[in-house]
Design a protein that fits this description.
The complex is a heterodimer. Chain A has helices at residues 5-14, 21-38, 73-77. Chain A is mainly α. In chain B, helix 5 packs parallel to helix 6 (185-191) and helix 9 crosses helix 11. Classes of the chains: A mainly alpha, B alpha/beta. Chains A and B meet through helix 1 and helix 2 of A and helix 9, helix 10, helix 11, helix 12 and helix 13 of B.
Chain lengths: 95, 492
Amino acid sequence: MKLTLAEVEHIAQLARLELTTAEKELYRQQLSAILDYAARLQALDTSGIQPTASVLPPRSVLREDEPRPGLPIEDVLRNAAQTDDRQFRVPPVLE
Amino acid sequence: MTALSQLTAREALEELALGRISSMELTRACIQQIDRLEPGVHAFITRTSEQALSQALAADTLRAAARQSGQPVPPLLGLPLVVKDILALSGVRCTCGSRILEHFVPPYTATSVQRLLDAGVVVLGKTNTDEYAMGSSTENSAYGRSFNPWDMSRVPGGSSGGSAAAVAARMAPVALGTDTGGSVRQPAAYCGVTGIKPTYGRVSRYGLVAYGSSLDSVGAFGRTAEDTALLFSVMAGHDPLDATSMDVPVPAIQLNGDASLKGLRVGVPREYFIPGMQPEVENGVKQAVKQLAALGASVREVHLPHTEYALPVYYLIAPAEASANLARYDGIRFGERKDAEVMWDVFYRTRGAGFGPEVKRRIMLGTYALSAGYYDAYYGQAQKVRTLIKRDFETAFQSVDVIATPVAPTTAFRAGEHSNDPLAMYLEDVFTLPTNLAGVPGLAFPVGFDKAGLPIGMQLMGPHFREDVLFRTAHAYQQVTDWHKRVPALAQ
């Protein structure tokens, strides 16, 4: 499994990660090696085996839909890079 | 006064109850030990000494008042604790070992931490961790690596390496860690302390910053099985704030001086003794199994045939979950932001600058495993093999009560040894990953030392929700051995 630079760039784009040229080449090599190692899973016959997403028994967890106090807005906004009038401030979404 | 920092949690609580020591004295002794050793060990990211002293004072005041009125006191009143810096403690910054959260101050407290606070603990600080708990050596922390108190050229293990090193160095009697693929058990083994990874769903994950949500567990360290059980008993139990927290009764864990293991069935899986492992680790664990037999346990071979697939399964599933969980770090609501003209570029630049190399590697790997065209071959197949690994344990636990194995193939490795080879680093977790995939509990504790004087750890695994059997077995072993009582030279 040899990843190409274009594939690495595609994955980085999906993950919204800015990578340097050196990082792209490093991850190209390292991810290729890890995926080679993971390829041994393909040899196992898993026909008829259900996937496990969680070890817990499947169940719905519900609670009463009652209003209750949330966290204080000032405490939550304190961690944001930019705020404006009790709101998060972001750069333009559309150019 | 420093001698107080050598007390186990149970000893300290007894002395506190008898009025022979105060929490202030005990807390000061721990702070002195940290002052003395922290420049070398680097177990902490953030210390909270002043807060700890006011908690200790409040604990002493409450105990004095209760003595007057005859009221009972909370079970851990005045006991010092350190907390891995990936669990939220309201008002204290929580970095997760990452630059991106360097100034993040959570406005709420993790349920596990809150239950311990309600039980009376004193928090000495937040301990070092591999960034977002991704690592096996605590070298991946953006705040510098931690050192193994037994040999400063070695790693303490990871990712909860700061907590394990702190307990080994007698900076605190007990500590909180988290375990997604071995991050409590492997550092416990490398540092010669006892560590529990509970059953998945046993301890609330509310306030634990998510890495691999189907695998993450909050666990505990102590120098004895008994101390570790004390923390576990307080933290365990249903929490409505975590939908994966299970409403299963938590049995009272009765540990007395009785070291008999009569009737206990111990399984030893051949698959956990592999070519290339350190012979002293193999011998140490086999000797310890003989000791369990000498205490009355019956020992038999069991098979966990899909063990060799646990590593590739884990390193597809955990990064896949991580890539989804870490999508929230966009620089908008919390975390360091790198500004740009348009929002999309804020995301790219913030994440590129804020995450370290291992986190980026796992986000990339997970994104790939989940991407269109590769999902079935990688993530889907890994989830099916996870089912086979889980079934291995279900089958094994039909004939035994507990499974005994090494924690890791070697004792603590040298810092920098695996820095350029992520796959070699991942192999350190080969014996601890299967329990997280199956959701069963695991306990690590010291069973000897190698020629270099480094601790050897044994792992006990049990059926879902049977942590009590693991504690009872390790406690019996610790009644007749003294490996767990050895102190690193620097901490004496």
